[in-house]
Amino acid sequence: MKAEERENKAKSAEPPRSEEATKERASERRVYVGIGLVFAILLLGYLIYEIAVVVLVILLTMLFSIIISGPVDTLEKRGWSRGLGTLVVMGGLLVALVALIAALAPTVEEQAVQFAGTLPALLEGTQAFARDAQNRLGLELPFSLEPQSLIDSARDFLSGGALSTVANVGAGVANVVSLGAVVLIATIYSVLSPGPLVNGFVAIFPAGKRERVREILFSMYSTVQRWFLGQLTSMLIIGTLWTIALFIIGVPFALLLGIFAAVVSFVPYVGPAIALVPPALIALVNDPILAVWVVATYLLIQTVESYMIQPIIMSRAVALHPAVVIFSILIMGTLFGLIGVLLAVPLTAALLVLANEMWVYRMDEVGTDPNPPKPKASDETTPKRHHLPAWLRRAAKRLRRS
């Protein structure tokens, strides 16, 4: 008892900590935490750069696992075993892919052969158009389209030795095949048994926070799935519109160019611009007026995408600001090349959900903003309803009346 009394007296003798000292220590602690966070981010970026291939395989496995797990989860809710559901989904995807290739292969092969046969004429026409533009505008191209110049460039490319070039290409193909096999096997196992992976990750957090971690993971999972479904639907619509439009206006290789437009539209903002280049060049070589129709088709498809596809389909997922998308594509492309460009948007969408759940929503609960920014009608970061142009509204009314 005497010892306890002495401790109580010692505590009562200590001067009380002032509020200013407490705030100062808290401020110093936040500074140290911020510095540590900066160093941790720099270290993480360095590690990602050093093991880029491993990180790329992990990201691809996560993306494919999330995509395939959607229908597997649906079958599991209906009483199917997870193994049987995975087998059915993977088999269905394989059958659908084979059927699609079998249906499109003859036409695509025919148009590809025709394109290869007309390539010299297209090159000659492009060369003549470039010469004409050069003479009229007084410009000089940084490269030459002369056949001999292209042959010399190819010879320079192979000057290091045809055997070494073939060996390098073969090694690159072997690496891609081996990494693809690793991603496929890892994806199958992740879809078959996701529970241990999720529970193992959740277990590193305090027990009281684990339910919240599961909610955030599910929100990210749902966001990526919605994004993929919306993106796949958008690709199909854009490819179909391009094919029909090019066929109507008379541009050769309409199906081949439509498939190309659908594939590159997977990359937002950049892909649609790339899809315009091949048909515009082909039309320009054949007939400049045809090129004008191709550009008009591009503008019309972009209007349909902006006012119909985006608000109806893509706004169900997380809407990203165009600048954020472009910078994410630039960063991921620099780190991982073409595959990184394809992974940029889903990864950014998932990170946005994580940032909102872990930081933004918590900060909204701390205090009150006396002058919050008013949402603008042109704000791209939140889903909104787009109003159709007047001419589209009139066309829709006519269709309903008919």
Question: Could you explain how this protein is built, in words?
Answer:
With 402 residues, the protein is an all-alpha fold. It has a domain at 51-140 and 176-193. Helices cover 80% and strands 0% of the residues. It contains 14 helices and no strands. Helix 2 packs across helix 3 (52-77), helix 3 (52-77) packs across helix 13 and helix 8 packs antiparallel against helix 9 (254-264). The longest helix has 56 residues, at 82-137. The chain is globular, with a radius of gyration of 29 Å. Residues 377-388 have low confidence and may be disordered.
Number of helices: 14
Helix content: over 70%
Largest sheet: none
Q: Compute the separation of the termini in Å.
A: 96 Å
Which shape, going by the Cα principal axes?
Answer: globular
Strand content: under 5%
Q: Report the order of strands and helices.
A: HHHHHHHHHHHHHH
- Poorly predicted tracts of residues: 377-388
Oligomeric nature of the chains: single chain
